[in-house]
Write the structure tokens for this entry.
Amino acid sequence: MRILGLELKRVWLARRTWILLVLALLLSVLLAYLPVTYCYSNGTDEAGNPVNLTGLASIAYEKERQASAAGLVTPGRVREAVETYQDCLRAYGVTESYDLPEGVYEREILPIAPLLHGVKEAFADPDTGMAPALMEIEPAMLEDYYATCEERIVSLMAMECPDSLQAQHKAVEMYDRVGKPFTVYPGMNSTVMDYQNIMGFLVLLCCVVMAAPVFSADYQSGADDILRCTRHGRMRLGAARVGAVLLISGTGFGICAMAYILAADSLFGWDCLGTSIQMTYSIVTLADITIGELQWIFAAAGLLSVLASVSFTLFLSARCKSMVMSLAAALGFCMAPVVVCMAIPGAAGAWICSILPASGTSIQASFLYALTDFVFLQVGEWAVWTPVAMVGACILEIPLFSFLAVRSYARGKV
């Protein structure tokens, strides 16, 4: 424990560590605010004149206009929303909402817009996946809205996983366990989660840069030749360094994730967190969670991904002779999921992305996008949902690469 304490102090007081952690925290707060800048809506002032609203003003305006839509998404409320939409478009002789006269959408359609989310997707053609226009849907069909959603997941999985009956059955079982009716509390969109994913990736890069020189810097400077001659200069010192870096990285990511979530929720409103994930992403998303729960689940998965990536970086640092080599190799593996996504499509690419340590917070193949997708990995006759595989891989990789890092350091530089 004494060695661990000394290593914690050494790593914690290093200028590089402070610079990276402060930078990560500032980026987290900045990224929490950026989605606000994309909010835009057309409103009216106190005199009734049209004005363009942006930022927090736009969020407040839309939440006020859509307050009547908040609550349970019952089939009856969805039917009323569709009828309102259709009556409005017929009254103005148009077939799409963007053809409405200026101000009509904000006045008549915006208040019920949250309840329309996913309606077209639920009634998509089971063979082609093409969604109909809202004007083509008979309101009477919405009395069995959730039964239609359950039929949709069956047809969707038949298209997504045509060769895996196990994956199809598992997806249907998961969706059956999702609580219904859904809930919606307007104000927050998926952009907030996208930026949380970006935050996770940037913090991961900061932690990797911090971890890359831990062993290789001493190799390069020659200090390792002296440390190796001390009483605890091999296995114990290596374990202490690994433990110290993992502890600091995990704490740093946890603080950044909390800062992002608290800042974003304060800006968009805490009442939005009760929205079912299906009312933000696909109406047939398999996870039985709300947006607020998604934020913390993704933060936990991101933490595992960061720890796995840092463990792998420490292993590389213990194997490389110079800081440049270890840093370049570590950053290369951080970018690997992005390259694999673009270069290796299909099942092979999904498998590789699921086991790469940095995939949990990658820009394209992240835990967030896997959780809102319908990709299953085949293991013989078994089908594993991609988010489960990602978390499982990280849980195995953290002790594996930590052990390999300590063992490689104890044996000496190569």
About this structure: The chain has a mean pLDDT of 88. The chain is about 65% helix and 5% strand. The CA atoms of residues 79 and 140 lie 7 Å apart.
